[in-house]
Design brief:
Shape: flat
Keywords: Acyltransferase, Endoplasmic reticulum, Lipid biosynthesis, Lipid metabolism, Membrane, Transferase, Transmembrane, Transmembrane helix
Largest sheet: none
Number of helices: 4
Oligomer: single chain
Pfam family, one: DAGAT
Membrane topology: Multi-pass membrane protein
Subcellular location: Endoplasmic reticulum membrane
Structural class: mainly alpha
InterPro entries: DAGAT
């Protein structure tokens, strides 16, 4: 039997969980859904939408290797803040860095 979260779980934590679930389901199902819609549209009176999309995809195929295109609305989305809070990460140094050592920042 499935046990749901108790009512005492804060709303903020529930939103964090929903943002992660949204990303997981998008990652697992969105590509397959888009392919099915793309192929399905080829056999309807809206076939030209698939042809237009395929043409754009062909002409734009080098864009990922050129850095892609940033969409600021998506980059500033609240979903990423909730996801960041769901996976809290903080750097932990075993010892302080020495001044003579070369350091790389990523």
């Amino acid at each position: 039997m499935v046990e749901f979260a108790p009512w005492s779980v804060p709303w903020e934590r529930r939103l964090q969980t929903l943002s992660v679930l949204q990303w997981v389901f998008s990652f697992l199902a969105l590509a397959q859904t888009c392919v099915i819609v793309f192929i399905g549209l080829l056999f309807t009176r809206f076939w030209f939408l698939s042809v237009l999309y395929a043409t754009w995809w062909y002409l734009d195929r080098e864009k990922p290797w050129q850095g892609g295109r940033r969409v600021e609305f998506l980059r500033r989305s609240v979903v990423w803040r909730y996801m960041k809070d769901y996976f809290p990460v903080s750097p932990e140094l075993a010892r302080p860095p020495m001044a003579s050592e070369q350091q790389a920042y990523c």
